[in-house]
Amino acid sequence: MRSRSILRIVPLLAAVLLRSFTAYADEGMWMVHAISKALEADMKAKGLKLNANEIYNADAEGTSLKDAVLSLDFGCSGSIISDNGLVITNHHCAYSDVHSLSTPEHNYLEDGFWAMTSKDEKPIRGKAIYFLKRVLDVTDEVEEMYAEAERSGQTLGSRRASYLIEKKYSESTGLEASLSSMWSGSKYYLALYEVYTDIRLVAAPPVSISAYGGDIDNWEWPQHKCDFALYRIYTGPDGKPADYSPDNVPLKPARKLEISLDGYKQGDFAMVMGYPGRTDRYASAAKISYLENVQYPVSNVIRADQMAIVNAWMNADPEVRLKYSDYYFSLSNVQENNEGMVQCLTRFGVADGRRGQEKELQAWIDADPARREKWGGLLQELDSKYAAISEAEANLVCYRETMVRGTRLGVIGTRLKSIHSALSDSKRVKQMQLTDAAQYAEMDLRVERDLFRYAAMTYYTNVDSCYWGPFQKELFELYKDDMEAFCANTWDKSWMTDEKRIVEFLTMEGPEMEPLYDDALYKFLTEVAVSVFNDTIAATPGDRTVSQLGSEYTRALYNMRLDKDISQYPDANSTMRITYGTVSGYEPRDGVWCSWHSTPAGILEKYDPDSYDFNLKPDWKALLEEHCGRSGGDMYFDANFLTDNDITGGNSGSPVLDAQGRLIGLAFDGNKESLASDVSSVPGYNMCVNVDIRFVIWTLRNYAHMDRILDEIGL
Asked: Exposed/middle/buried for 543, CB within 10 Å: 0-12, 13-18, 19+?
């Protein structure tokens, strides 16, 4: 894994940094049910050939594009592409499922999975797919619930309010109901979903195809990934959602997407529909500065070092790679995202730009006595609070990254602590033991020992000793000059790292486990709780927490924009959104203009047999050489292409649609310059990386020979 240094580049022009709160055309994750006339007109000006009701239509008599777009457990997006419930999404969205099905004998991650018949499609237990049916504005209803509770002298928490509203609408409609607060309670919307739980894997290429370039190419451009996977939704024989049964039948969907093989060109209209997870575009300058200078610098360094430890073991042992590939994938994706965010926050001067925008907000507040009364000192209070908590927060981040998630035994230790308080509850103890059994099965204790050694050393070096527990202080005095002795006497002698004793533990009755709690490793991992840090943070000056202040800040921004008649969209929160723009290139750094597309020939140009990330399977390499070799070829399409659509995590697998609403690609990544987009979008730099649907179809035809699937989708 290559290291990445913080980019120290001169910020962009002040005109970009101090731009107004107005959303630009290539910015915005707009609520799909609330496409205004002005927004529709702007989309059509960019090239859209559809009307708004062809994108979202809740009329029971009609369908729209939203009926073909779906959420996979609200972690990724996907779409329906056949009349038999065939779902297309990204391979990295299916990664955990493919990993869970893989064994040393059938390593579907490395070799790919292709269900050549319907009987070969593999059920994925615990997976759910959600189709949006309707969105309701329930703001008045929720506000009345809170008002009624206040009148009766009761306290109504947000969770209780959500439960009551969701229960009411679920019972009346028979659909899954989910309440979302927008703009920190300024508006409330209720989404109603049809949920399917019999989901089966149909196709997933090898990682050398779907994730070509691996960690090195992640968040970079150009990329050359064929990042797709196929699932199928099954229903009961009556066509209704049902749990898995061999008697179930493929879903007959309300709508499917038409696949376009016509391609696209630079400047063409492009639209993405999906379920973006979380953004914080209403973050204050104080919060952005905190993320840039306190939280992420701590977690990024620790996670990068952990990745290096795991990667070294994966390169040394194929069995370790199989066990840890999913863990490493998740770790690297978050770490690189956060590291890139720090780089972009610095490069684009985001905190300074936000402070310039806050001058506009403060002027609006000061212009009205009522607003001054409500929000007059808000910005100063935010600055003071973040300054007060920064040191304790830095300690808390380090604690979490080392003691809680620095090794998988940290998670097991926390669960053991819960078991200790419930030893008399034999049923609960047995459930936790089964959970631990699954955790132990996924571990290699050699890897975990190295991770533990690093975690302990980092904890002692970076967390203020005032937070250490008495036992941790005792161990430090004994072994502060010899970490190997520390590991030998803490890790190596623990029952938690003795495979024979682990087996005994998993069959023990509750009271028999009592002696285990005198274990040095257990005590070291669990002695200090997160509450120690939270108590320090709570004791800092100020009546309100940063969360409360942040919510008030969001409401102030929302009301200012409302007052000024400025179009605005709420932060992403796993509800369906639409974003629109064009196919386009960009200028990433130092005046270098990046092309808007990459070709399959680039796969061969990057080929390196000595690199895991850039190696190719012989049959795939031969196929590429045949069709796009130096002597020419017939691969007339792209591997990947860029659009300026505004996306974030959760959009992975989203359909990329042309002006007629036809499928031309799948969104799978962003560029390095977009990694501050969770808090700020920078016009002209935030790009969406997509796989060309024609590359997917070509791979299904020429590499996987899945003629039955091509016939099914009419190609």
From this structure: exposed
